Amino acid sequence: MGLSTPVDTTGASSARTTGRQWAAVAVLGLSTFIVVTSEMLPIGVLTPMAEGLRISPGTTGYSLTITGLVTAVTAPLVPRLLGGLDRRMVLAVAMVVLALGNVLTAAAQGFGLLVVSRIILGFGMGVVWGLASAVATRLVAPRDVALAVSFAVGGVAAASVIGVPLGTIVGNAFGWRAAFAALAATAVLLAAALLPALPRLPQPTPVHDSTSASAPEPLLRSAPVLAGLILIVFLVTAHFAAYTYVRPVLEERTALTPSAVALLLLVYGVFGLAGNFATGALAARRARATVLSLAVGITASIALLALFGTVAWLAGLAIALWGLAYGGLSVGGQIWMTQAAPDRIEHVTGLYVGVFTGAIALGAFLGGTVVEAAGVVGLLWGAAGCAVIALLVALFGPGPTPRPRAKAAARAAEA
Question: How far is CA 165 from CA 37, 38, 162, in A?
C-alpha cells in the first residue's frame, strides 16, 4: 500500500486513547524534555563550564544562541526533507544526534569544539521539537489531541523547572562534563524507547478542502498562520529579552537574596507547568481568545515588574502571573497553528518551532543590548512594549477557525 493512503496504525480514530498510546505520548514528552534541557543546561553550569573551556562566561553563553539559530533553520526544513520516511525512525535517529552533540560538549576543550557540538545538538533539537506536536496528534483519539499536545510540549516547560536545576545539581556534584554526559546517555535510552513505544508513522496524507481541487496556498499566505507567527515573534522576543535578566531585576530592584530569587523562579516554573496544561484544553476550543489572554498576562506581568518591582509581594505576583501566561504560550501557539493549517500539520509545526526558537535567540541578544544601554528598568519597559504589539496582533489580526472535527473533539472532551 502506498503512502498516499496510509493505514491508521495509531488508533487515533478510536473512541478512547489506550494506555499504550498514552505511554507513547509520555516517551515523546520525555524526549522534548531532554532536548530542551540539553539546550538550556549551560545556564545552570555557566561559570564552571567557562572555566573548563578557558573562555569568558559571555562567550560560553553564546552556545545557547548557536543552538537556537540552528534549530530555527532546521525545524521548518525537516517536513520538506523527510518525504516518506517513518517518523518513528526519524525521531530515534534525531535523539542519537542529540546524544552526539552532548558527548562532544562534554569532551570540548575550547570554543571551537563547543560550537561544533552545539550545531549538532541544534539539528537534533530541530527535528525532535519540530515533529513532536505533529506526531502527538497521531497517537491519540481525537478527543485527547489537545491534552496529547500539552504533554508533548510539556517537556519544554518541564526542562526549565526540573531539567536545568537537576542538571545543575549533577554538575555541582560531579562536574559540568558529567551533566552533559548524563544527558547523552539519557538521549540514547530514549532513542531506544521510541522504537517500541511509537507505532509506524508514515508520511501523513494531506487533507485538502473538498470544495477546492487546487493545491493548498503557501503557509505564509495564510492570514491566520502569518498573524500567529508575528505574535509569537513579538511575545517570545519580549519574554526572553526580559526573563534572561530576571535575576538581576529581582536582586537590584526587589533586593531579594539569591535563595529568595531561586524560590521565586521555582514558583514561576510551577505556575508555568500549570499554564501549559490548562492552556491545551482552552486553546482547543478558543485558540485566539486563549492566546490573547496569554499575551495580556505576559504584558501585565512585565509591566508590573517595571512599575512595582521594588515591592516584594507585587514582584512575586508578577513572577507567578508571568509563569502562568508564558507557560501556556508554546502549546497555545501550537494549537493556533494546527487549527490555522490542519491539512499541513507537520509543515506548519516545523515553521512554528523555527520561528519560536529564532525569537528565543533574538530576545536573548536584544535583551543584552538593551540592558547595557538602558538598564533593567529600560529593558522591562522595552519588553512590555514588544509584548503590547503581540497583544494587538492577537486582538485585531485574523485568528484560526476550528474545523468541525476539532469542534466535535472538544465537545467529546467535555462529555
Answer: 9, 12, 6
pLDDT at 6: 36
Grid coordinates given for 156: 519544554
User: Which residue intervals of 7-110 are DSSP H helices?
Assistant: 19-44, 46-53, 57-82, 87-107
| Residue numbers of the chain with a pLDDT score lower than 70 | 1-15, 58, 204-217, 402-415
CA 250/CA 376 separation, integer angstroms: 10
CA distance 277 to 273: 7
DSSP per position, 113-157: HHHHHHHHHHHHHHHHHHHHHHHHTTTS-GGGHHHHHHHHHHHHH
pTM as predicted: 0.77
d(CA 377, CA 191): 44
Cα–Cα distances (Å) from 78 to 82, 133, 182, 321, in that order, read: 6, 14, 27, 35
What are the b/e assignments for 42-52, b being 16+ CB within 10 Å? Answer: bbbbbebbbeb
* pLDDT for position 385: 95
Grid cell, residue 247, equals 535575576
Residues in the chain: 415
